[in-house]
């Protein structure tokens, strides 16, 4: 097995949660293996655990399907939460006033590292005698 590790990332932008709340959940799983992190996030009773879990699952899928890494060796090397765009909104108040507030969003960056899957040995080509034996084994269709 090779000692070379590769890193793959996934980015979740515009998560409708304040970055302060999301970063509390992200701190629980930072630096752990992907399998451990997903188990922990299953049992965290915070709404912010869902988007963090989805971002980690996306990074795992990118690593396995697009880059050919081994799913058992994946470790979260970076998990950062930054502020996203803020939506300016107004809340109705007494005497016909409108009070401004901002809806905060978050961006979640997940970088996982892991080793490449071991390559399978190519299949052996059958020799000419094996090919003729396979043809002889096929049953002949009977005509009615």
How would you sum up this structure in a few lines?
Helix content is 33%, strand content 29%.
Tell me what the structure shows.
- The chain is of the alpha+beta class.
- The protein has one domain: Ribosomal Protein L22, Chain A, CATH 3.90.470.10.
- Helix content is 33%, strand content 29%.
- The protein contains 4 helices and 5 strands, in the order βαααββββα.
- It has helices spanning 19-29, 34-42, 49-66, 128-137; strands at 5-15, 75-83, 87-92, 98-103, 106-115.
- The protein has a 3-stranded antiparallel beta sheet with strand order 1-5-2. A two-stranded antiparallel sheet has the order 3-4.
- Strand 3 (87-92) and strand 4 form a beta hairpin.
- The chain starts with a strand and ends in a 7-residue tail after the last helix.
How much β-strand is present in the residues? 25-35%
In the CATH hierarchy, the architecture is Alpha-Beta Complex
Number of helices: 4
Rg from C-alpha positions?
26 Å
* Percent helix range: 25-40%
CATH superfamily: Ribosomal protein L22/L17
Q: What's the total count of β strands?
A: 5
Strand order of the largest sheet: 1-5-2
| Protein structure class | alpha+beta
Indicate the mean pLDDT: 89
SSE order, one letter for each helix or strand: EHHHEEEEH
Q: Mind describing the biggest β-sheet?
A: 3 strands, antiparallel
What count of domains describes the coordinates? 1
Shape category: elongated
Task: Please describe the structure with a list of short key phrases separated by commas or semicolons.
single chain; 144 residues; 4 helices; 33% helix
